[in-house]
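User: I'm writing a tutorial on reading structure tokens. Could you give me a worked example: one chain, its sequence, then its tokens, then a sentence or two explaining what the tokens reveal?
Assistant: Sure. Here is the example chain.
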Amino acid sequence: MNYYLLSAVFEADEASFTEQPPQQLNFYYTEPKSFATPPVVSLDTFYEGRAMSDFLKLGIGLLASEKVQQIFLENQFSGLQFVPVEVHADRIDHSFTFMNCIADYDLLDPVASNAKRFKEVIGGYAKVSSEKLDKQRFLGSTITHDCFTLSNYKLVYYVNERVKLALEQACVSGIAFVPADFAATPT
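And here are its predicted structure tokens:
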């Protein structure tokens, strides 16, 4: 099975978003989340554009449109939880959700990825120059989820071929699929 890094693509006139206080969305811990009131995210006002794709960009992850959520539901893709959010742009929108990874795998090659600033409090690296997966760990792992993040670097989403094909067939916007990159193996 092939795996792909989800890479954010800004569509014409699309802006990014920021979570407003109290900040509740936390991508460092791969566990289900539930909130009494939906977290609020708002358009970064320094952008002139107001376009919204199927994947909105939030500094700590991605927000999925109803279209994306429906694709995941219909195909029963695993590894993600969709957490309701309230999006403030020109109007208030309740149709987007935060893509919360609930599956992670120890696949990052920290040396080849130039990983820096390992923080115990988050159990991972705060900065990675280029995600490179460890081929031996990957081949030795049993990946049972359609979507996942890395156990020691949570700022990324990986999906399998089934997810990629379903999203491409639906012509979703705001995302690209980059084949998983592996570190060069020592000879």
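What the tokens reveal: The chain has a mean pLDDT of 91. The two ends are 25 Å apart (CA to CA).
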